Structures are given as structure tokens and as C-alpha cells.
Amino acid sequence: MSRSFVVFGIRTYAAMAQQVARLLKAKLGQVQVLDFPDGERYQRIITKISDKNIVLVGGTISDAATLELYDLACALAKYGARSLDLIVPYFGYSTMERAVRGGEVVTAKTRARLISSIPSAAQGNRAFLLDLHSDGIPHYFEGNITAFHVYGKPFVVRAARQLGGKDFVLASTDAGRAKWVQSLAEDMGVDAAFVFKRRLSGKHTAVTGVSAQVKDRHVIVYDDMIRTGGSLLSAARIYQEAGAKTVDVISTHGLFPGDALEKLQGSGVIRSIHVTDSHPRTLELKSEFLIVHPAAPLLVEALKERS
């Protein structure tokens, strides 16, 4: 990689921006940010960025964070960035990638359109998005920006090997992720499992079985995202009831609103949860139960491969 970079980050991703700068051996850009009592925000770019290759780190974890990222990106392009690379560890609304009922807003698409409207740097804009819930989301970006889906497979494989060595069952929370888990399990040379469910009504489902033998075995459940963890806990209990010796969890994105993590830990079903720091909430909650792995190396490697 011959290009040199200046790295910026929105406030909620300041720690990751520092990691990215360190891995790229790049300068860390400075921005003055002030919040006014009425909720408006002031930003001023301190570092000279004209004709520089800029990396901006920030996830769309909230509307406020999304607009902070958008406003800063627009200014970086306006003030003469040669190129503009957005590192987006967590792309909010990724589960709202299609309309199921009439009148629904496909928010993943509207957010992609918003980011696509950022003015183009001289050599164009790119976005690097980690483990999207749907493979089709990069195609929602349009115009002068190219979006790349960065898969978290290296993190999942490394964490799974640390937890289970060579003998474990890689499991999914339901059949929806079974194909991806099956493919990954085959790559790792381990067995895969998922839960069979039958819908009884709009609100209730019944478990009809588990796809693989898990009795007296170490089960590692993978899910791309944990919000409240209700589905995860239900699946973990099913594997435990089927005879699993231990149940650990790997997830790329951990959100854990409210007391979600406390409930998962208090259940006594899950031994540990491994996540990346794609969402800054994980850094606030990390413990011996919640082990947090850095996402920056994955994203920087993807950036280097395309630079």
C-alpha cells in the first residue's frame, strides 16, 4: 500500500479511530465539536486535509451519530480531500433491508442513499461496512461511492478456535442463519447445528428438534447481531436441553440495550459471549463474561487490499 492517510473519527468511535490510525501508521486528524443546548452541533476541522487521503471512522448507531458522520464527511470532501474512505463498523437499520408489508420504510436503503449523497472527493468515496445483515445492502449505495461488505469470518474462526479448539459444534440461533453457519463449519472441519421451529401463530413458535447431535459436546452459537438476546437465549436453552456440555456465543455486533446483557449472563445458560467492538456499547460492558475483540484489524485489512 503506497498511499498515506489522515484518520478522523466521530466522537463515539474515537477509540477505534485511534486504532485505525495506528494500524495504518497514519496521522490522527483533529476536529472541534460543540453541542448547543438546543441539540444543534458545531464541528470544525482543525487538521489540514487539502489533497489528503482521508479515512473517517463512524458507525450509524443512532440518528445523532449518523448525522455527525454525514456532516463531517461532507466537510472533508468540501475542504479538498483527495479521497474519502468511510469505515462503518456498524450500519444501523441493516435488518430493515426490505419491505414486508405495504407502506414500510426500507430504512437501510434510505440510510445508504443519505451516505451516497456525500459530495465526492477528487478521487471518489468508498464505504467499508462490517458483517451486514443482508448481502444486498452495498447495492443500495449509488452515485460516486463504492460500498464494500467486509466479512467478519476471520474473527469468528479465530474466536471459535480459541473457545473450542478443533472439536466443537458450530450452531445458529435458527434456520435463517443455518446456511452461513453450515458453510463456515465445513470450512473449519466441525459439525454444524441449528434449531427446527414450527410457527404456531403470529407470536408463538414451537421447537421441533435440533439438526445435529450436541449431547456432551461444546456448542458455539454464532449470530451476526445481538440486540436484546431473546432469540439467542432461547436457542442456547434448547442446545442445553439437548445435552450440550457448554454453550458459548460469538457475534460480530453486540448492542445490548438496557439490561439485556445482565439477563443473558444471569440465565446461567451461556458461559461467555465474544463480540467485536463494532458497536461502542460493548466497550462499556466488557467483562469476563463479555469478551470484546477489536474490529479495526479486519476493516484496515480490507482498506489496504483496495489501496
The oligomeric state is: single chain
Which strand order does the major sheet show?
A: 2-1-5-6-7-8
Euclidean distance between termini CA atoms: 6 Å
CATH architecture tag of the largest domain: 3-Layer(aba) Sandwich
Query: Can you tell me the CATH class of the largest domain?
Result: Alpha Beta
Mean pLDDT: 93
What is the helix content? 25-40%
Order of helices and strands: EHEEEEHEHEEHEHEEEEHEHEHEH
* Structural class by sheet pairing and helices: alpha/beta
CATH fold name of the largest domain: Rossmann fold
Specify the biggest β-sheet.
6 strands, parallel
Unreliable residue runs? none
User: How many alpha or pi helices?
Assistant: 9
| Total beta-strand segments | 16
Question: Beta-strand level of the residues, as a percent range?
Answer: 25-35%
Indicate the overall shape.
Answer: elongated
Number of domains: 2
Radius of gyration: 21 Å
Main attributes?
16 strands, 307 residues, six-stranded parallel beta sheet, single chain, Rossmann fold, 31% helix, 2 domains, alpha/beta, 28% strand
Describe this structure in words.
- It is a single chain.
- It is built from nine helices and 16 strands.
- It folds into two domains: about 5-150 and about 295-305, Rossmann fold, CATH 3.40.50; about 155-275, Rossmann fold (3-Layer(aba) Sandwich).
- It has helices spanning about 15-25, 65-80, 105-115, 155-165, 180-190, 230-240, 260-265, 280-285, 295-305, and strands at about 5-10, 25-30, 30-35, 40-45, 55, 85-90, 125-130, 145-150, 170, 190-195, 195-200, 205-210, 220-225, 245-255, 270-275, 290-295.
- With about 300 residues, the protein is an alpha/beta fold.
- A six-stranded parallel sheet has the order 2-1-5-6-7-8, sandwiched between helices. Strands 10-9-13-14-15-16 form a six-stranded parallel sheet.
- The protein starts with a strand and ends with a helix.
